[in-house]
Automatic annotation (TrEMBL), chain A:
Membrane topology, as annotated: Multi-pass membrane protein
Species this chain originates from: Oricola cellulosilytica
GO molecular function: transmembrane transporter activity
Keywords: Cell membrane, Membrane, Transmembrane, Transmembrane helix
Pfam families xrefs: BPD_transp_2
Protein known as: ABC transporter permease
From TrEMBL, chain B:
InterPro entries in alphabetical order: ABC_transp_permease
Protein's name according to its UniProt entry: ABC transporter permease
Localization, UniProt: Cell membrane
Membrane topology term: Multi-pass membrane protein
GO cellular component entries: plasma membrane
Predominant cellular place of this UniProt entry's protein: membrane
Annotated transmembrane regions: 6-26, 38-58, 64-85, 154-176, 196-220, 232-259, 274-295
Organism name: Oricola cellulosilytica
Keywords annotated in UniProt: Cell membrane, Membrane, Transmembrane, Transmembrane helix
Upper lineage: Bacteria, Pseudomonadati, Pseudomonadota, Alphaproteobacteria, Hyphomicrobiales
Highest taxon above the source species: Bacteria
Automatic annotation (TrEMBL), chain C:
The keyword Transport is assigned to this record: yes
Pfam families: ABC_tran
Protein name: ABC transporter ATP-binding protein
Recorded family membership: Belongs to the ABC transporter superfamily.
Presence of the UniProt keyword Translocase in the record: yes
GO MF, one annotated term: ATP hydrolysis activity
Subcellular location: Cell membrane
An example Gene Ontology CC term for this record: plasma membrane
Organism per entry: Oricola cellulosilytica
ABC transporter domain: residues covered: 13-248, 264-508
Topology of this chain in the membrane: Peripheral membrane protein
SUPFAM superfamilies for this protein: P-loop containing nucleoside triphosphate hydrolases (SSF52540)
UniProtKB keywords: ATP-binding, Cell membrane, Membrane, Nucleotide-binding, Repeat, Sugar transport, Translocase, Transport
PANTHER family in the cross-refs: CARBOHYDRATE TRANSPORT ATP-BINDING PROTEIN MG119-RELATED, GALACTOFURANOSE TRANSPORTER ATP-BINDING PROTEIN YTFR
Amino acid sequence: MRLEAKPAPGLAATLAYPLGAILATLLIASLLVLIAGASPFNVFWLVLKGAAGSQFALVETLTRATPLIFTGLAVAVAFRAKLWNIGAEAQLYIGAVMTVVLGTGAVAAPSLALIPLIMMCAMLAGALLLLGPAILKTRFGVDEVVTTLLLNFIVILFVSMLLEGPLKDPMGLGWPQSKRVVAEAQLPRLIQGKRLHFGFVIAIVSAVATWVILKKTVFGYEMRAVGHNAEAARFAGIPVNRVLMKTALLSGGLAALAGFSEVAGLKGNLTLDLSPGYGYTGIVVAMLAMLNPLGVIVAAIFVAGIFVGADAMSRSAGVPSYIAQVMVATALLTMVTAIMLSRFRIRWR
Amino acid sequence: MEAFEILWQTSFWVAAIRIASPLIFATMGELICERAGVLNLGIEGIMTAGAFAGWITVYAGGDLWTGVLVAALTGAAFGLLHGVLTVPLGLSQHVTGIGITLLATSLTYFTYRVALPEVTSPPKIEPFQPWAIPGLSEIPLVGPALFNQTPLTYLAYVVVAVVAWMLYRTPAGIAVRAVGENPAAVEAQGISVTMIRIGAVMAGSALMAIGGAFLTMSAFNSFFFEMINGRGWICIALVVFGSWRPGKALVGAILFAAFDAYQVRLQQVTGGVIPYQIFLMMPYVLSILALIAVARRATYPKALMVPYQKGER
Amino acid sequence: MTPSSGGEAETVLRLSGITKRFGPLTANDAISLELKRGEVVALLGENGAGKTTLMNILFGHYVADEGSVEAFGRPLPAGEPRAALSAGIGMVHQHFTLADQMSVIENIALGTQRLFSPRFDKAKARQRIETLSSDFGLAVHPDALISDLSVGERQRVEILKALYRDARILILDEPTAVLTPLETDALFATLKKLVASGLSIIFISHKLHEVMAVSDRIVVLRSGRIAGERRTSDTTRPELAALMVGGDIAAPAVTEHAPGGTMLELEDIHTAGRAGGAPLDGVSLSLRAGEITGLAGVSGNGQAALAALIAGTLRPERGAMRIGGETINRWSAREALRRHIGRIPEDRHAVGMIGDMNVTENVISERYRTRRFSRNGFLDWRSAETFARGIIDDYDVKCPSPDARVRLLSGGNMQKLILGRALDGDPQIILANQPTRGLDVGAVAYVHSKLLEARKRGAAILLISEDLDEVLALSDRLVVISKGRLSPPSKRGELTVQQIGELMAGHGLEDPSHAA
């Protein structure tokens, strides 16, 4: 068999491929649900109801989508330049650490000054964390996949060390958790009494800004050129290494915002279970969105919906909630296959 | 200096070899894949799936070797999926590999919950027991470390020898190396690049899964979530560190394991002055440092991560 | 015309009505061909005439849309290199198919022993290789790594690969492109021995003199069709040349005119090697306004390094570089562009264009930072698209719109985009590295006319080509490169092809102080 490039499909066809991928994912998930001894239709209905069936469910889904938008954007930006940042998890935690360091009373300022300051510092910390692997890649040729993956483990241990040491909450009854951030450092809730917070708005704004960067700016153009063909980019005089560094800064910064928003908007303090793998799930979100920043919003809400819905479903239908993770992983694989099929035609002979 | 005395403890060397065993399996597995030109980032998930598959087989009444076989087949199945997606379809090996890891891990957890819905702590199995090799195991220091281990550890060393022999001394191995260097050379000699690559990825993935199974069936006696804990990623670093050669990768794995065993004991010796997390970080930091050290002179298989299409040169 | 009317020689290979289309392009159009035992058939044609496609179909790399292949009277299943191999067909590809980090034995015996046998029988393979080497004059060390071999030796390994499998039909695709004249003679001697032992050979080439020297029969391909078939003893070079180009495209008319001042000057430049080729070892050269300087040489002798140097992607380690009289200190691709060097790279797919970006995005890639295309970090897509449309119109690029992905364009149209990008703003210095490789005759003529146009308006042009005929046809001055050193420049027509051949082999270039 052989793959042949084909012209870009029209809008309808472009949407058909992701839908096909989702359909394939549902089919595979149905099989697992059957194995678990439940009815797929019932299970999917419960997932849907749990994700979007009530105001509570919807709010919960959007809340869960917030960190995924940030990590999805981080991955989308990096993958555009073929910088394989698999370390969004670590960058998220570093962003959270920064938020706790500055937000628990070390700096006293009104909200309007303190929150932007914390945001900037969190972004900077995440950016610098990814700069390391980017420098190792460009200077020494060390594969960034492995370094960013290993950094995830290092950073989690680092956070654990901080939580049992300098950042430990003296009132925490021995639990490894930080103090709570002061009121001025907390993001306001969007709806009184609900968990959805201003971090969601920041996420949407970030997505739009990232879209503008990719589509409209010189930097975005450089990033895409480097990602598609670094050698041709270098020949055309595009400073490939510098572009990769800048991409790393942007990507790391975006991922760090996830940590900032979770601490300042939702949890209020830092614990070791702040992220149930948002960094890794960000990869799925980015791929489902075909690396389009605006698509990341949709994909993140979709993925968050699966997680939230599956939690609810699991309580009532007895199918393990891990089905959500299986679906998300399957969606990643079916989606990359669908993207390939939308660009190439398979000729068997 | 207590820190140095550790090196003379028999238990330290026994532990080092035990820690090395799963790494050796998985490193050899990744090495085969990469020698054929396919990066397999599914390793972490495949090890998880292998650990579970072997353990649950024994828990369900199978004998230990059947468990190893089931683990290997599970690994090969995920290898087949990775191979089909990355070789004929030419999907990004990075993204697909991560996808395989996510899929294998989540499927494992899902299956665990479906199979054992009620349990709160995972049930134990009767794992492999050490086989003392008469005579040799009585040599001081080296004896217990090398010759009083479980059969799976011995198998790990056999696997290194077999992989080395296969890659350099058999027609199939020569084809694997050639396909990682220049697939067109293989195609021109009438061998299917797709078949060789998928076959290598399946074989490699089977070894990774056995590496995972070592943890549940030899090192410990039960399955825990997140028990692979980054070992797969470390094996990828070990392959680079070993310059894609089985012998060097073996040395790397043992060195690494010795260091890991050492830091655990050093932790006890230093008695909590240094936070224990620093010690736990060391293996990961060491892997990154090893990568930096060898990166400059690393000679990658030339076609690594380069998809191949027939007739394209 | 039916060759060998005596009729005793059996037909070993028969291609009937082979047609192959790639999208809108018909690479092979109903081609039929026969090969007799002990015969050398030359497949002659310009680049892009469809020779390589035809042979790839024969060997099973491609599957024909129509037609069939028969070897030794038995039909050959399509799309299976293995079937071609076992039918006794061996192919020496233009780009060698060897694994560099493996030994000669391993490369040759790959796939000849049962894949899952527990042991690779090295001794048997070695013995057979040594026998074949001595029988046919193909000296090569069986245990050497391919990466340590010269290009000529690698080609011998390729031929041995075919012989090792008892090939009765040998296909050689442009075998002399990488050889020095001396090595070419050795190859021809080997081919004679092979034919004497009963092999049949298809020799693919676009070089008339070689075809005349080596073949019994010549089949000329033009634009995917058979343009004619002649017995070698009954034809002449001019007749073949006319068949090749179809007579309707005249050789480029180069009018004499006096060159202007020096635009770019290299003085005793030393560099690292590039793309596996030789490094530059004391190169001095000046490019003058209104003049095409042609660079001839066997590939891998430093052309890649010289091209990279001028394109700005390689910095000299030693030596001086002056542009318009000004000594250059900081050198980069960006600097080269800032100094108005138009650059046509060797590999348009891998280096010249970004296949997955669209036409607009590709044509601005060298200039996107200028005020014409961007303000305050934001791109002016409207201006960029206008520019793209301009190039599409001016250079007659066939593409659906400026939004089309470049990957979907043909090689000729891609090259036109590169020309449009490189020649925008009338650069005073132009680097044209293999500007016509793989293009069809019409596109070749178009590229030539654009280069001559630039020459006419006073640009200083360096033309690097492996095609000696192209270099000779276009250049005002000729320099020959060998092992990273340049011959003194010679005027148009000053040297005979034989003398150029000797320079290509490195004779007379030992002392770098000779250089211009």
